[in-house]
Amino acid sequence: MASQTQHQLLVMRTHDEAARQEYYMDIRRHLARNVAGGNRVVYTNVVRPSFVKTHGRDPESRAEVRSVMTKDPYYQMYSAMQRHTQEMTWDSVIDSVERELPGLNQKARQLAAAAKGSLTLTPDFQVPPYLTFYDIHLQPGGYHANLSADDVSVGALYDRATYLYAMGNLGGKSDYLGLSLIEHFKKRFPHVTPKRILDMGCTTGNSTVPWKEAFPEAEVYGIDVGESVLRYAHARSESMGVAVHYSQQNAEATNFPDGFFDVVVSHIIMHETSTPAVGRIFKESKRLLRDGGVMLHMDNPRLKELPPFDAFLAEWEVYNNNERFGGTYREMDIVSEAEKSGFAKGKATLEIVPMIAPPSVTNYTTKGFGFPCLVGEK
Ligand SMILES: C[S@@+](CC[C@H](N)C(=O)[O-])C[C@H]1O[C@@H](n2cnc3c(N)ncnc32)[C@H](O)[C@@H]1O
User: Fold this and answer.
1) 224 Cα: distance to centroid of ligand 1 (angstroms)
2) Model confidence over 32-78: pLDDT tens digits?
3) Taking a C-beta distance cutoff of 8 angstroms, is the pair 286, 252 a contact?
4) For the domain bounded by 1-378, which CATH number is listed?
5) Using CA positions, which residue lies closest to atom 27 of ligand 1?
6) Domain residue ranges of the chain, discontinuous segments joined by +
7) 156 alpha carbon to ligand 1 midpoint, in Å?
8) What is the pTM of this model?
9) One-character DSSP codes across 193-245
10) Which of 221, 225, 237 to mutate to test the pocket of ligand 1 (most atoms within 8 A of CB)?
11) Helix, strand, coil: what percent of the chain each, to 5?
């Protein structure tokens, strides 16, 4: 598997740090390849038969599967190891970021000084409580931490650690989500040539950069709530020679004018928000689109359509990785929600975006792997 593509902002690792980081990624791969599958074996041979004996029927929901599987020692061992590798992945990258931080901050300042894109931060910005309530996916400090007036530590930590977390499945530049959605957009809307594109919840710009590369004539904008991640995203994009306009904004209510964008997208942000926020973000997306414009919100696989046991495994992150809203979002009727937010009936659809390179290793089934995406046409 190819390694992560080095760019000017990606934190450097000493030999020992690199070994420790890759060790945790390899343990994650080992769990996914060789251990996760054992959960199905114990479910089929032990846990399910015992449930049937007691209840006279199969478990009917993922909650019922959860109530019995979480008592099983094999699952407990698997789950504890998953959680441990998640904690240790962040921990292993923090060492490198702490050491390199003064140099990274300086590099980001230099790149920003010669930028072709832009960065607009908002003093006293109010981060929505669903992002500050806990550290999402156990990232220490969450997305919104900020250590100084020129801090890029949160972005530096996220960029390296999420590559390890994804076990390399998102590519060397962690851009496969963006590239996959672009492919889907081009196929679905060949007649739309975007002049302005907005990426909501851009974090470090991993998916924003490919939109600009795919549509070099377009102005591309990225928004997020985190000051440090935005500084990092801006410098990272500039280091790649890609001009993006980043700003600190809440996707529920931005300061862009009505009808400003041809395309509004997001990549895996919705499951980290809240029920009221989802409707507000759809409504805001509609406001921001010109007539004939397109909204694409892509997120993790839905839970509703999965058999109870698969849904139980797929929601591991909900209970063990501080992604509590992930279960709710993946069950919401988001097409109806989009219609309630102003999209005309028949103009909002749920579509599957195939990955340009399906994951080579996962904890779940990869059969027909793709990301569900809410598509809305104004
Ligand atoms: C999983 S990350 C998204 C990853 C990124 N889109 C990518 O493709 O690499 C979720 C991001 O959404 C941001 N976010 C969540 N709610 C938001 C909101 N209401 N407004 C703006 N950004 C938000 C978080 O701060 C975080 O950076």
Assistant:
1) 6
2) 999 999 999 999 999 999 999 999 999 999 999 999 999 999 999 99
3) no
4) 3.40.50.150
5) 203
6) 1-378
7) 15
8) 0.96
9) --SEEEEES-TTTTTHHHHHHH-TTSEEEEEES-HHHHHHHHHHHHHTT---E
10) 225
11) 50, 15, 40
